[in-house]
Amino acid sequence: xxxxxxxxxxxxxxxxxxxxxxxxxxxxxxxLEEEAVHRxxxxxxxxxxxxQVLSLVKEPQSNGKTINWCQVRVVPEGQEQTLTGKxxxxxxxxxxxxxxxxxxxxxxxxxxxxxxxxxxxxxxAARKTYGHVSAGMIASARELGIGEDHDGIIVLSRLxxxxxxGTDALELLGLTDEAxxxxxxxxRSYCFSIRGIAREYAHATGTAFEDPATQVKAPEKLEGGxxxxxxxxxxxxxxxxxxxxxARTVRGVDPTxxxxxxMASRLxxxxxxxxxxxxxxSNYVMFELGQPTHCYDLDKLTGTITVRRAEDGEKIETLxxxxxxxxxxxxxxxxxxxxxxxxxxxxxxxTECSDGTVNVLVEAAHFDxxxxxxxxxxxxxxxxxxxxxxxGVDWEVADEAAQRVVDLLVELGGGVADEAGTDVGTEPxxxxxxxxxxxxxxxxxxxxxxxxxxxxxxxxxxEAERRGQDFLVTPPSWRNDLETKExxxxxxxxxxxxxxxxxxxxxxxxxxxxxxxQQQRRRLVQALADAGLTEVLAYPFVTKAANGTFGVAExxxxxxxxKLANPLSEEFGWLRTSVLxxxxxxVKRNHSRGFRDLALFEAGLxxxxxxxxxxxxxxxxxxxxxxxxxxxxxxxxxxDQPLHVGAxxxxxxxxxxxxxxxxxxDWADAIDVARxxxxxxxxxxxxxxxxHQAFHxxxxxxxxxxxxxxxxxxxxxxxxxxQEHDLPxxxxxxxxxxxxxxxxxxxxIVAKHISTFPVATQDVALIVDAAIPSDEVKDALRDGAxxxxxxxxxxxxxxxxGIDEGKKSLAFALRFRAPDRTLxxxxxxxxxxxxxxxxxxxxxxxxx
Length: 848
Prior knowledge:
- It is elongated and about 130 Å long.
- The chain is 26% helix and 25% strand.
- A seven-stranded mixed beta sheet has the order 27-30-31-35-34-33-32, with helices on both faces.
- A hairpin with a 2-residue loop joins strand 9 (127-129) and strand 10 (132-134).
- The model has no long low-confidence stretch (mean pLDDT 92).
- The chain folds into six domains: 2-39 and 178-210, Phenylalanyl-tRNA Synthetase, Chain B, domain 1 (2-Layer Sandwich), CATH 3.30.56.10; 42-172, CATH 2.40.50.140; 228-425, Phenylalanyl-trna Synthetase, Chain B, domain 3 (Phenylalanyl-tRNA Synthetase, Chain B, domain 3, 3-Layer(bba) Sandwich); 433-500, 2-Layer Sandwich (Phenylalanyl-tRNA Synthetase, Chain B, domain 1); 516-619 and 628-744, 2-Layer Sandwich (BirA Bifunctional Protein, domain 2), CATH 3.30.930.10; 760-847, Ferrodoxin-fold anticodon-binding domain (Alpha-Beta Plaits).
- By secondary structure, it is of the alpha+beta class.
């Protein structure tokens, strides 16, 4: 909202020397946001005065153009020229070359003298042209930046002006005014008007405010005017689309009369260009009072006006010249010929006021916010009117707005107003809010006396009646955002001053903190980040094919998935059952931008329906707290949403450098990352040969808990899948069910005791069947060795000469240590023998 300062001064005590910056500083204190300053004098300044054409000689040129050699008086006859400078004639008569032909001798015009500057940093100076020295320029509206007309210069008599020669033209045309622009939040629609801003300035400064609506003398009752019927048979949410319609008639209007410069300049500063007198008056009243109005050519109307919803197949040509298909939810202004406007959004071309208009019907109505907002979005028709209607307009001000338009049409357009008029509709029920006297103090955290609360509510325009320990408050008609006691408390704090509220640091309640699962999740994510992986966030929307590939290990098996009812894209219309498809998309995007060495991970929810019915048969009503039973039904309709953690590694493990050759990520790295995830949570993962349709058939590990529960896969992605997604060969990945890891993790992870006794190390090589996983042999050695075994790890696998076909040799290093003594060689050998015996018992292992 742009606020011309000269306009605001009519209704507030804004100091004469106050600037737009001063105004915004005051408005910020009552919660409005400053945006910008608009000051025409920044681009138009210097000696620009009213001049009178004394003589005009037409001189044809060789290029076919005819110029006017003019003598223009810029100082009243008999007075001395006080301006000095190169090109300023002391006699007060300037010789000027002009190419426009819409003026004659004796016309008063705008003269930009040498030394002036026009928009675009265009400097005026005396220069030789067409055989003359032109000492200045006779200006057009476009050259001054106040309009688009460039075909002719400004003739002041045609604007209804007859100023004295030498008058400052900048002040005459309103170019010395300035405007402050503020951002109006959706809940404060009343600030989309000079009326509302003036009231807020009075709140901020404690000065007097004069309501422009009270200066309009509207009839107490309107009867006998143009017929209007409100016939909304399909209201949105049961709310009528129009609950008030005021119509007034002005006859004998001359729409060709010029808009006065003071009005045109204020509209221009407010951000609206001047169009015609009726349109400019309608816009002026909208900015002044916040009530949009519309002017119809009365002679183009057919019969009674009816406000109703659109019918199937109806169309309308709007004022922008476009034919629009109407929706049955659109609220229309119609007559017997059909639609003549989309209510609150834009009028129709068929009843538009033109230069031939004589009789004008003025409309000032009150429309439903939701209806106007939906129509505006549906037809992509943003307008100053819809901006106000969809946020809320004062129901009470419609008659004053219509009267203000009528008065200006009479004053400026020469019309005569009909005494008869129309005012139909039903006033909405007043809202009554119970505000306990102590509530605001408790809510805000500072003491407000009852006298202060009553005064602030009165300043707001609310009616406050004391009822025992409470105030019974009726908000003013222009504050449709005040509905609860919390709203009133916020207004009290705002008008008293946010800077008056003491600052107190909140104290965390004792006995609270992260839950066990939150702590585990943070520990897991931090460990992966510390290991050098980068966390990313991918979209949870995937294709059906992606769910079929990654969501289930066996090819052809079905994995139920959640299909979106209103997806952003039909292709990506499913919720993910695995985090790997999103990670692959992120890797592809980074590869396309030249990033080749990547180690990415994501911890996110997947959606795993059990094949039953999702959702509920009914949705709880708005504005009411659902019951426990309804909440249980809603929860029962949701799919299982476990947290999964996935990672993809591609390229090299480190940057190339002098003396260092980076290593390519391989399947073992994916398994190591999975083991790291288990270690940081205190979960020992069992790694075994596995199979998954998205992974390489020979380089895939399945990851399980000691209980045997499968929790994920790790390894190299399938070559065909990598080729399909244009990813590098040997890209590796892993995915784990993090929730399963959290559940299996101990509550407390106890650090291992650091022993002061020496370790006894012995190695053993065992020959077993090639199909037996090394981890299972390791478990057998661990079980057989007993408590003295501190660690066992595999350091070599061999199959070849000296080993029977179908067999392999597994070499393990065993570390033995006692907590209370130094082990002897015999004790270590005995424990080693027991370990070998257990492996032989379980898997037929033979010591090599």
